[in-house]
Write a structure and sequence with these properties.
8 helices; 16% helix; elongated; seven-stranded antiparallel sheet; 2 domains; Phosphoenolpyruvate Carboxykinase, domain 3; Jelly Rolls; single chain; alpha+beta
Length: 441
């Protein structure tokens, strides 16, 4: 299935009609499939080019109007007849908003991300992002409809792809996640594809390190900074907050930073829980936080910690620099637990490092107090919390119950009786990353 030769004024079709590019401006980039969309068939495109000087981005949906007779407005939201359009995280029908907070924000899609639509056998419209069904966007879709894409704003070029291309993309992301989290899976050789040059090209990264040795004027940014493309506003704000702490940049490895805000983790279709270590033990991804990866200390051999567990540790803002300088976690030093805690255990706990397999517990305000952050760019006053993600040696800690007096489960995946991991052993943890969470955006 290709795009129809009748299209928006600023569109040029390429690759036999399978690719479409907006040649100028930010609008008049509407393209429609040449044939009606069969029920149960996914129509999807890959984002091949972005232009960050504009705002907003790609829109996608279906229309009942034949492309031969369609009058193309400046944007898809100008289609006044039977057209269902998904823009940002809204659904529009005939230019009128009919649903909010649906799926991830399409303005957050990156280069090489996939987005598509499908009408199921019950005439319901579904949105797919990177191969993941985002649920029902609309109902009662007429029998004959055509897939459409609005190459709008930052999105400048797309290409129609089939489901196999999407599976390759998901395998690529899964391989990256496996490396990051330590999950080990054998994959068929035929499924392996070349990783994106944006962040994962070893040759490019080595060239970047060589360039940094030349001492050229100005700051030499990592390659990922040049190709961040669709910047996440939450991650950018977290970065500005982290910059106010005055932490040495040498502690960090910026190309491995990951944002777990709602939009980003939905776009990646992150699984919420992973297992790592020997024996394997489960931990929760830090949804709602932004992760800034740390460089391993020279004394730490990555091979020696590949079978360690993953855990989280909340802390006060003033302790972050001391922890980084020492290269190890600090005990809580008399954290007040409130009425739910037991004072008889407080002194004992204050001499130990407290960890948890979920940041919902370790990163709560009791262990990671809120700090006021006045964002200089937006002039908003936000509340910030910080925590660490760490590797922890199996057998070096004991599991115990939560101390907040909570009755309901803090994390549905874990029992409240095993939420705390306590250790006194030296060299039993290795810092993985700094986590930042902002509230009030």
């Amino acid at each position: 299935m290709e795009f129809h030769e009748n299209h928006g004024h600023n569109v040029q079709l390429l690759n036999g009609g399978f690719s479409a590019r907006r040649m100028s401006g930010y609008n008049k980039g509407l393209v429609v499939c040449s044939k009606p969309l069969p029920r149960g068939q996914l129509f999807q495109v890959r984002i091949d080019k972005l232009d960050l000087k504009w705002t907003s981005s790609l829109r996608i949906g279906v229309t009942t109007q034949s492309p031969e007779k369609l009058h193309f407005p400046s944007s898809s939201l100008g289609l006044q007849k039977s057209a269902w359009i998904i823009s940002e995280d809204f659904v529009f029908f005939g230019g009128i908003k009919v649903k909010s907070h649906y799926g991830p924000n399409l303005d957050s899609l990156h280069f090489c991300h996939f987005v598509g639509v499908m009408v199921d056998s019950e005439n319901r419209l579904h949105l797919y992002v990177n191969g993941i069904d985002q649920g029902i966007a609309a109902t009662d879709i007429p029998p004959v409809c055509y897939g459409l894409v609005d190459i709008y704003g930052q999105c400048e070029q797309v290409m129609i792809v089939n489901s196999n291309d999407d599976q390759n993309h998901r395998v690529e992301y899964k391989e990256k996640a496996d490396k990051d989290t330590g999950v080990k899976e054998k994959k068929k050789k035929s499924q392996t594809i070349e990783k994106s040059v944006i962040k994962n090209c070893e040759y490019q990264n080595t060239c970047s390190r060589f360039l940094a040795t030349l001492g050229l004027p100005g700051k030499v940014l990592p390659w990922s900074s040049y190709f961040s493309l669709q910047d996440c506003k939450y991650q950018n704000t977290c970065s500005r907050f982290l910059a106010t702490l005055g932490l040495p940049v040498g502690y960090f490895v910026s190309e491995h930073n990951v944002c777990f805000c709602e939009a980003c983790h939905k776009i990646r279709a992150d699984e919420p829980y992973f297992k790592k270590g020997d024996p394997p033990r489960e931990y929760a991804l830090p949804f709602g936080w932004c992760r800034f990866s740390l460089r391993l200390p020279n004394k730490v051999d990555p091979y020696n910690i590949q079978d360690w567990h993953i855990a989280f540790h909340g802390t006060r803002l003033g302790a972050v620099r001391r922890i980084l300088d020492r290269g190890e976690l600090l005990p809580p030093d008399g954290i007040s637990l409130g009425s739910g805690g037991k004072s008889g255990k407080a002194d004992n706990h204050s001499q130990q490092v407290m960890l948890s397999p979920t940041v919902r517990y370790a990163g709560c305000a009791t262990f990671a107090p809120r700090h006021e952050f006045n964002d200089s760019k937006t002039q908003k006053i936000l509340q910030a919390r910080v925590a660490f993600q760490v590797y922890v040696r199996p057998g070096s800690y004991t599991s115990g119950p939560q101390r907040l007096g909570a009755v309901e489960p803090i994390d549905l995946r874990f029992s409240n009786s095993e939420l705390e991991w306590l250790t006194k052993e030296q060299n039993s943890t290795v810092l993985h990353s700094v986590l930042v969470r902002l509230e009030g955006l």
